Amino acid sequence: MEFFYGTALFSAIILLIGIWLFLKYLRYGSSRELFLNIFCYLQGRRSVWIRDPSLAHLILHSSASKGSGIERLISTQGFSPVLSLESVDGDQWVRMKRNFTILRSHLPRLSELASVTSSFVHKYLQTEDVLESSHLAEIIFHSLHKWIFDIEPEPHDTELVLAAVLEWRKELAIKAKGDMDIKLGAIRWIQGLIQNSKYYDVFGTKWEEPEYWSLFLQPLFISPIINITDIAVSVGSDVIKNEYLKGNCVWSEQLFINAVNFAHPFPILERWFPEGLTHSHEFGNDNKTNEGGYLIPPRTHVFLPMDEIGASLTKTVPKENEIGQNNLILPPRWTAFGAGKRVCGGQDIAHVLCEQIFGKLILDPKFKPSQRHLFSGRDNDLEETWSQSFFQLLLLLRILRKLFFKQITNIIR
Q1: Helix (H, G, I), strand (E, B), or coil: what is residue 33?
Q2: What are the pLDDT digits (tens) for 104-146?
Q3: How far, in Å, CA of 8 to CA of 402, rounded?
Q4: What residues pair up with 271 in beta bridges, in sequence order?
Q5: What is the bridge-based pairing of β-strands 300-305 and 268-273?
Q6: Model pTM?
């Protein structure tokens, strides 16, 4: 009997360790690959994971469609009711991209953003004993608000918007359900701000539609606050600080790219190839994957693990991937903001913010970006609770259930 109880206890411990490891690596290791491959299989699509930097570069340039993958099944719900330029697809993306370009032409010069951000960083250094993640979020919000609307936000607006960003952050990171009432408060805030600003005449009454007010809220407030505070944790690491010291304490674009690659805030990019992709002169005929002469076969969903690609750029030997191997390593510049038609439209804004914030704070003893950094899309918050892990698992299982029954329905028909 003692042997039976001992064996049962040992088996239970092994089972719990196995569950813990599975949940721990749900978003980073083979577990995420398994789930996303199943997502594609249930939709009758091939799936390919590409880890070679130069081939990934070609993939991003060759398609602007994200298909039915991470963005449509997960991120669109996380951003809801905001329509994110990163997540929308097809004709809607074309319209929003065009309108965002129009809006960008009406924004002030980036030199003004640099000046505003610098003044806010100086102010916080003078008034705060420690600059933690929540203070960085405030600096980013205040800087963008002042730059765009030429007024500083009211304290209650700052509290409202940053609380809403936290709700979007936790849902986009698949760690908890966001509070819709708090999100709606931020939407009412931006709608009121637009109506009383010089930007109202750009699109007039169309600003009442989600496709239009989202152009302000997502790329100019939500995403910069989420992503830059995530990158800040990398900047605060000893690895990046040592690089900064080796570079004569000059904040450079390359240093910024290295910080992003160190722990990319957007772990996976994706592209959909309904018609496939034929071979390219960059790779030659040796990279054909089948007798049809395709580099990427038709009806293939391509996943690009940006975290793994970023890490591989520090190596001199290219990684072998599922499609082939080549000797070309492109400069790592593209990895931070993607490439092709869907390259990040606000990358120049991000560069200015990061240069002014990190260039002044990286070696300052007050700079503590990991403190109060919550719901990281990476593991930059340095913790993940059991409840957050189970939330991820349950969400993925619900998606699998939905896709499974949809497939069954299609078969019956």
Answers
A1: helix
A2: 999 999 999 999 999 999 999 999 999 999 999 999 999 999 9
A3: 36
A4: 302
A5: antiparallel
A6: 0.86
